[in-house]
Amino acid sequence: MRTNPRSADYAQGSAIRMAMDEFNRSYCGVLHLLHDCFNGSPNLLAIATGAMYALKAQAIELMQLPSGDGLTTVGPSFEYVPPEDRRTVQGKVVMLRDGPYVVSGDVAIYDVEGELRRSTGSWCLCRCGGSRNKPFCDGTHARVGFDGRESADHGSIADRRASYAADGVTIYDDRSRCAHFGQCSNKLPGVFRVDAEPFVDPRGAPSADVTTVAGDCPSGALAYAVGDAPEPVEPHQPPSVVPIVDGPYRVRGPITVVGADGHPYERRARQTLCRCGHSRNKPFCDGSHWYAGFRDPLPPEAADESEPS
Length: 309
Description:
The chain is α+β, with helices and mostly antiparallel strands. The chain has a domain at 165-226: Alpha-Beta Plaits (2-Layer Sandwich). The chain is 25% helix and 16% strand. The protein has eight helices and twelve strands. It has helices spanning 15-37, 45-63, 140-144, 157-160, 183-187, 207-215, 288-292, 300-306; strands spanning 91-95, 101-104, 108-110, 116-118, 122-125, 162-166, 169-173, 222-226, 240-243, 249-252, 255-258, 270-273. The strands form three sheets. The chain has a five-stranded mixed beta sheet with strand order 4-3-9-10-12, with no helix packed on it. A four-stranded mixed beta sheet has the order 5-2-1-11. Strands 6-7-8 form a three-stranded antiparallel beta sheet, with helices on one face. Strand 9 and strand 10 form a beta hairpin. Helix 1 runs antiparallel to helix 2. The chain is globular, with a radius of gyration of 21 Å. The termini are far apart.
């Protein structure tokens, strides 16, 4: 690793400089959290613990990043960043290898009761399903040996989806992102057919009804386009992450999801991310929470049992 690395050693806007700047923002954010923990807000300790796991992952990435001199790697610089410069506007969700989701930018984060918990900054959300401080990470993934390996396709949505045209609209269906909520087949069983192929028959109901149900698909697996428009209709929604009761995170708005290997998934306006830890299509929900018996919030009797003795 390079001796005494400094962000100023690299050009503004370069990949190395951006990675170092991001680390330093996270580093100062952790210091701020720890300061608050020990000065009147001990409830923030679990959140700070998750943030430290994220900081460790960023440091490791920097220590593996070639510095450009052919001999050394970059390494973390641990530089102070004023609070007004720590803000990252663009919404992003990054997976840590076998760890939590790191949500950064101007993203509204809610708890399962619908209460707004955070609206900007960088925060770690539980991905293993075991945190006692949901939706935030408390480090449980490390204790239980969580396997967070991703298996979802990184390819283009347009290459995966099937299309079905009828009456001036086209219904798109990307089965690889379906979270199996069943809201489509429950509302319009003659269109979204669980016992027939193809799954979608757009002529089974009035177009207005079909597009309404497709547009309400939680995972974004279903979408629709009007006329000859090449892109699906997606109303603007502010970026947010909302845990669904006993289910996944509902992700809305312009938020980029990035794998643990650093490669982003194609951005979409509606996404559902696994939070039970059991999906076979990580990081996306595949409905496994139903079979795993995932509960959040816990019923009172189970909540009592989960408390440490």
